[in-house]
Write a structure and sequence with these properties.
Length: 234
C-alpha cells in the first residue's frame, strides 16, 4: 500500500559545513525481541505493560516501566505475538491483545497525521502544486508528501523535481488526499511540502515506521498509487 523514496538519509550535509569533524552524540541502544538485533532506540518501537499485565504500544516512549522493543516491521510484530516473546522478555505472564498489530498500525498512521498537523501550525508546511514546486526549486523542502490517489502527471513531475534539485529531499506517500487534507484543516491535499528541519526529519521517520508495519519491503519504487477509484488532480 505504501512505497517511499528517501534520498535524504545518505545525502544530508553535516552540521558546521564541509569541514565539520564533530562526532554525533551516541544513541542509546536496545535489542529487538524478535530479531535479536541491537539497534538505536530511534529505529525501534517501544511497548510497555499496563498495571493489568497487558502489552500496550508506546510510540511516544513515555509510559512508565521497562520497555519492550521491536523493529517497526509487520513480520517482527507477528513473530513476537505468535511466539509469546513479550512474556519471555518480561519473565512473567502477559496479555497480548489479539489485534495488537492492527492497533500499532493505526496508532502509527495517527502519529504521522498528528505530526503533519504540528508542522502546519508551526508554519513549516506548504500545500498545493505551485507552492510546493516553488519551494522545491528554492531547495527549501526536506520532505515531499504526495497523496496515494493523486493524479500521476502532477505527482510524477514534483517527484522528479525533488530528485533533480532537492539536496536530500525525501519523497513519501502514506495516505489519500482526504486524510492529508484533514490533517491540514482542508478537504483534500495532494502535494504537501515540509520544510527542512526537525519536523521533516521526525515525520520521515514516522512514515518509514508505518511502511514497515504495513509490510512494506521496498521503499525505493516511488509513490504508491491506487488501482481504481478517482484520483485527485489539484
Amino acid at each position: 500500500m505504501l512505497a517511499t523514496t528517501a534520498e535524504s538519509k545518505h545525502s544530508r550535509r553535516p552540521a558546521g559545513g564541509a569541514g565539520a569533524t564533530a562526532k554525533a552524540p551516541r544513541q542509546p541502544l536496545r535489542r529487538c525481541l524478535a530479531s535479536g538485533a541491537v539497534l538505536p532506540k530511534a529505529d525501534l518501537l517501544r511497548f510497555a505493560v499496563d498495571p493489568e499485565g497487558q502489552v500496550v504500544p508506546d510510540l511516544g516512549e513515555r509510559l512508565p516501566g521497562r520497555g519492550l522493543w521491536l523493529q517497526p516491521r509487520r513480520d517482527m510484530m507477528e513473530k513476537a505475538c505468535k511466539k509469546n516473546l513479550f512474556a519471555r522478555a518480561a519473565k512473567r505472564q502477559l496479555r497480548v491483545p489479539s489485534d495488537l498489530v492492527e492497533q500499532v498500525e493505526l496508532l502509527a498512521l495517527r502519529r504521522c497525521l498528528d505530526q503533519l498537523g504540528l508542522a502546519r501550525r508551526a508554519g513549516s508546511v506548504v500545500v498545493g502544486y505551485e507552492k510546493v514546486k516553488a519551494a522545491l526549486k528554492a531547495d527549501r523542502i526536506g520532505l515531499l508528501l504526495q497523496a496515494e490517489d493523486g493524479a500521476a502527471d502532477g505527482t510524477d513531475k514534483l517527484r522528479a523535481l525533488a530528485q533533480a534539485v532537492g539536496k536530500g529531499t525525501a519523497v513519501q506517500s502514506f495516505c489519500d488526499a482526504a486524510a492529508l487534507g484533514a490533517a491540514l484543516g482542508r478537504s483534500a491535499a495532494v502535494h504537501v511540502g515540509v520544510m527542512r528541519g526537525r519536523f521533516a526529519a521526525a515525520l520521515e521517520r514516522d512514515v518509514e515506521r508505518l511502511a514497515g508495519l504495513r509490510g512494506g519491503q521496498d521503499r525505493g519504487n516511488g509513490v504508491g498509487r491506487p488501482t481504481e477509484g478517482e484520483r485527485w488532480s489539484t
